[in-house]
Automatic annotation (TrEMBL):
Keywords assigned by UniProt, alphabetized: CBS domain, Hydrolase, Membrane, Metal-binding, Metalloprotease, Protease, Transmembrane, Transmembrane helix, Zinc
PROSITE patterns: CBS (PS51371)
Principal subcellular localisation of the protein: membrane
Family matches, as InterPro entries: CBS_dom (IPR000644), CBS_dom_sf (IPR046342), Peptidase_M50 (IPR008915)
Protein name: CBS domain-containing protein
Lineage of the organism: Bacteria, Bacillati, Bacillota, Bacilli, Bacillales
Domain CBS per the UniProt entry, residue ranges: 230-286
Biological processes, Gene Ontology terms: proteolysis
PANTHER family (UniProt xref): MEMBRANE-ASSOCIATED ZINC METALLOPROTEASE M50B, STAGE IV SPORULATION PROTEIN FB
One GO cellular component term noted in the UniProt record for this chain: membrane
Named cofactor requirement(s): Zn(2+)
Listed SUPFAM superfamilies: CBS-domain pair
Family: Belongs to the peptidase M50B family.
Amino acid sequence: MNKAFFISFYSFERFKITINPFFWIIIIGAILTGQIVEIITLFAVVIIHEIGHLFTANSYQWKIIEIQLLPFGGMAKVEQITDSIWEEFIVAISGPFQNLMMIIIAITFQKMNLWSKEWTTFFINANVLVGVFNLLPISPLDGSKILKVFFYRYFPFRKALIYSIFISIVLSILFLLLVSGIILGTKININGLILAIFFIYNNLQDFKQVPYLFWNFLIQKLKIKPRRNIQALPIIVHRDTPLIEALQLLRKEKYHLYYLLSDDGEIINVIPEEKLLENIFDNKELYRPIYQIVG
């Protein structure tokens, strides 16, 4: 089981820090190979990386749940309060941005003769490793969140989730084949193998979470006041379309109007999204045709 403890950090509410079992395997391996200083430095780089996510999420008043220490570094689990795609992108990119800032600081310290060239090189490499690696579009890395933001702009929320998870699973399998030496015919990379197994496991868990995430998205949309001052995005559906299928066409950060078509293809009704969202808590209504619900 993961061990967890609670801390208070600056203006944040109390949140949990959990240590993934895979993380301990990496730590033990580093100790056995005499890389204690390196692992402590890498650990510090990871913490600063995650603090970047936390500060940005906190500035948007997101709910901070926990920090997870994982084999590749760490992950800040937060809960978005709004449906802003821009906020989600900024929170995701703020971690790698911290690594960029640390690289600039390291170069500055070397120029001021405060750090040796060897230490500066190691510190820069550590930040490049954490920052660039986290930009890979594999869940739960930052790159997967950035990929989802891209999909949110062009696809309904549920499809965006599924597409991003599918790509993440494919890349996780390719990563497994790479570190196991199957693709290049090289020796097995043990640490890489642990990461690959973790990635695949995490993505399978993400896939199981799709119904929950979609439901949470609908509830969040229901709570947000309709934005009448923006152009509505039309969704054209047949009047016999079940409510649940119609809701799966909703996009993040968009306001929708549903245009119901008759069998002849004529528009028989125009329904604002909130009228459909009001029925999400009634399981019987979810599978009824839209026209029977709204009249």
